[in-house]
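stage 2 :: seqdesign
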């Protein structure tokens, strides 16, 4: 539900100087972008003897896609073939496939641009040796390292509605050297909304302190200035070739103005200045009932000679919460097997079979599948297959099998408290839909908060709603929160899984109810930074802290952001950074849930966590390990 008022104008807000050197180049001129840059997989795969793949290419205003360039990797035993490009049943180009590992150029001239994108259908027709018909459908034709070459000159945005382009590599958020709480809140909200909007393009988000002029942007960059005070509004600011966007207003107004770019109202902002009235969103609350179509899978099918296989992703971030008791009502069909062939349908999760049943003449699929709790992850794939066995005869004597799962297959779940899976695998879904961000004031803390929230947003298919508040308010709240505490942790109401005292003694807490903990005393003392997640007071917390060594926390956040797979690959519930070493991931008992039976496994987790930390710290100094009870003096 969206309620808003929008006032448009042609005059820009004053008070911010923006300078641009005469030789600055801020717009793309006939560029070449890799598919990864525009948010697609750089390898295009076409499966089967006659494969097809839809490609949707974003187009900056003023540019036109001219051609695709790639390296062809043919399937084994393929002799060549033809690649066809079409749009709306209109053939754009037909190109012969070259020899294996050879370059190919695919013309796109004449393709129509609709809503700042060109969507084309690639079809491959492979040539095979005479009499060869047992084709491995899992071995596709691949177009490797695919790039798009554009012609033309990118156009600069002239209105607020056009400020954010179809392709964005960097967003720079300029705030005062000492940003206020309202300015920090607006910056976090804009950073999160931008990352959610561009998804797999993964634009970088920079926070800079600017109290005057901004340098000109580079191509595929946009700049937003956030200022508390002055008249409320959103306006383009020159004289750069690509203007910056100024968001200003009182503390109360900044929240509304910063929401404008991520709302549907932004499409109506067709002037260089606009003032957003009350602009609020009501988060979409997760439901116990959904379908795989609503989870991003409109339906899936596969055709193979004997063993077609499909995958249905169950993404907890799309469900919008941490879940348990997941059941999927698989509905679909498969080609009935002829006489002489036997077969079964199988359903697996993570390589483990969870259900199977014999094929029948109806070819209909109508079955409930329970997903075991222990196999639930942030992203859980349901693998469905038809396994057929028997004599398929000579070439051309057997009809391939098609397996189809309908998009209306229902998915049922309940809220998991504590979350499943535990630790980092419960993020970000255990924090959704509204995340409170607690931090002390300051530019460095704002940068840390933005690094964390954007890292989590890149894991989620749904956008977050955020609210910045003081560190104390977030700790005292009953809602899920991210807490940025770079100088250390001193709140007695919440015990972190791993802490360090003033003497350098590292404590790994045991939260199984025994009151015990494991400790390590280091000489000399080693500073570390950490990200720790825990379930406390009926809500999930993610804490960014250090042992008085905020530079180590910063190094950890930079390490996480430097590789696309590091945030998603975090396991356990603690990741620790120490000087001279790669960050260490730990699993302590704080990550255990009531689904883990008995005390043995919890004790094992504790031993693994303390043992891994001890091994990592041996090179740093003398390590002394001991067991203690909090009840002992």
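stage 2 :: out
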């Amino acid at each position: 539900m969206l309620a808003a008022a929008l006032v448009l104008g042609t005059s820009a807000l004053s008070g911010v100087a923006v300078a641009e050197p005469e030789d600055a180049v801020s717009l793309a001129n006939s560029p070449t972008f890799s598919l990864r840059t525009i948010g697609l997989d750089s390898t295009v795969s076409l499966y089967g003897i006659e494969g097809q793949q839809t490609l949707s290419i974003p187009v900056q205003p003023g540019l036109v896609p001219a051609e695709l360039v790639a390296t062809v990797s043919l399937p084994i035993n393929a002799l060549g073939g033809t690649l066809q490009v079409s749009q709306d049943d209109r053939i754009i180009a037909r190109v012969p496939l070259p020899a294996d590992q050879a370059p190919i150029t695919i013309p796109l001239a004449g393709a129509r641009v609709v809503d700042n994108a060109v969507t084309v259908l690639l079809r491959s027709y492979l040539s095979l040796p005479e009499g060869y018909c047992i084709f491995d459908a899992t071995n596709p034709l691949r177009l490797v390292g695919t790039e798009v070459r554009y012609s033309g000159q990118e156009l600069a945005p002239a209105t607020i509605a056009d400020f954010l382009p179809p392709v964005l590599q960097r967003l720079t958020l300029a705030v005062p050297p000492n940003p206020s709480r309202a300015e920090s809140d607006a910056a976090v909200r804009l950073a999160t909304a931008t990352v959610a909007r561009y998804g797999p393009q993964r634009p970088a988000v920079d926070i800079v302190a600017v109290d005057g002029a901004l340098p000109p942007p580079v191509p595929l960059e946009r700049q937003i200035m956030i200022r508390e005070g002055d008249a409320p509004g959103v306006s383009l600011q020159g004289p750069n070739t690509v203007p910056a966007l100024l968001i200003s207003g009182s503390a109360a107004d900044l929240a509304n103005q910063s929401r404008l770019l991520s709302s549907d109202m932004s499409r109506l902002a067709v002037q260089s200045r606009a003032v957003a009235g009350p602009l609020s969103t009501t988060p979409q609350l997760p439901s116990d009932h959904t379908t795989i179509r609503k989870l991003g899978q409109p339906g899936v099918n596969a055709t193979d000679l004997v063993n077609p296989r499909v995958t249905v992703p169950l993404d907890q971030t799309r469900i919008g919460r941490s879940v348990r008791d997941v059941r999927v009502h698989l509905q679909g069909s498969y080609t009935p097997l002829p006489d002489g062939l036997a077969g079964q349908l199988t359903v697996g999760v993570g390589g483990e079979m969870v259900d199977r049943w014999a094929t029948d003449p109806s070819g209909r699929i109508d079955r409930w599948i329970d997903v075991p709790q222990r196999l639930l992850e942030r992203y859980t794939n349901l693998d469905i297959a038809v396994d057929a066995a028997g004599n398929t005869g000579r070439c051309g004597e057997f009809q391939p099998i098609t397996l189809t799962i309908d998009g209306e297959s229902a998915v049922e779940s309940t809220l998991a408290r504590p979350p499943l899976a535990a630790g980092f695998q419960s993020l970000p879904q255990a924090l959704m839909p509204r995340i409170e961000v607690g931090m002390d004031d300051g530019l460095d803390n704002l940068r840390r908060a933005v690094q964390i929230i954007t890292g989590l947003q890149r894991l989620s298919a749904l956008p977050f709603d955020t609210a910045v508040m003081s560190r104390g308010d977030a700790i005292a709240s009953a809602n899920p929160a991210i807490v940025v505490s770079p100088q250390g942790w001193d709140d007695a109401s919440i015990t972190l899984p791993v802490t360090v005292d003033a003497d350098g003694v590292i404590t790994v807490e045991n939260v199984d109810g025994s009151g015990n903990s494991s400790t390590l005393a280091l000489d000399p003392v080693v500073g570390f930074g950490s990200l720790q997640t825990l379930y406390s007071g009926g809500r999930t917390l993610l804490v960014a802290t250090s042992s008085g060594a905020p530079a180590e926390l910063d190094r950890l956040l930079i390490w996480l952001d430097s590789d696309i797979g590091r945030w998603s690959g975090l396991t356990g519930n603690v990741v620790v950074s120490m000087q001279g070493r790669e960050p260490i991931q730990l699993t302590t008992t704080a990550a255990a849930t009531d689904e883990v039976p008995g005390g043995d496994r919890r004790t094992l987790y504790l031993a693994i966590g303390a043992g891994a930390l001890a091994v990592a710290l041996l090179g740093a100094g003398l390590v002394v390990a001991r067991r203690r009870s909090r009840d002992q003096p």
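stage 3 :: structure notes
- The first helix runs from residue 181 to 198.
- The two ends are 57 Å apart (CA to CA).
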